[in-house]
Amino acid sequence: MDDTAEDWENVMWSDETKVELFGVNSTRRVWRKKNTELHPKNTIPTVKHGGGNIMIWGCFSAKGTGRLIRVKDRMNGAMYREILSQNLLPSVRALKMKRGWVFHHDNDPKHTARATKEWLRKKHLKVLEWPSQSPDLNPIENLWRELKVRVAR
């Protein structure tokens, strides 16, 4: 694919991510005075026994955002293909993307599975080749970061 601006406008970017609903998935440290560890400003609410995050799949292009859906179970190849089946083409149609648009997903094993590649081939979808271990190149990561920051507030 040539790297003209018009070419990049025809890419439908997609990915999935986990969003923490109650805080972040890391340790936070605070400066505090001795014996004030239980003061509300020095504590962070938590949720015990799970339920503190959701998995989502979404897509977007230069023309706008496509569908954003919650993934309710652990995602495998069959579920991924079902998500694409129900959400990718409707998103492309809603955004009125030009003929010859290109689909992007990363090199996650469920994306590169033989059955997924075959499904994409049968649908005549052109897939953007992507270097492995390069999530920093996918612009959808910027959307995920912004979403996670806003949810954490």
From TrEMBL:
PANTHER family: SI:DKEY-77F5.3, TRANSPOSABLE ELEMENT-RELATED. Coiled coil: none annotated. GO terms for molecular function: nucleic acid binding. Residues 11-151 form the Tc1-like transposase DDE domain. It comes from Nothobranchius furzeri (Turquoise killifish). It holds the Pfam family DDE_3. InterPro entries: RNaseH_sf, Tc1-like_DDE_dom, Transposase_5. This is Tc1-like transposase DDE domain-containing protein.
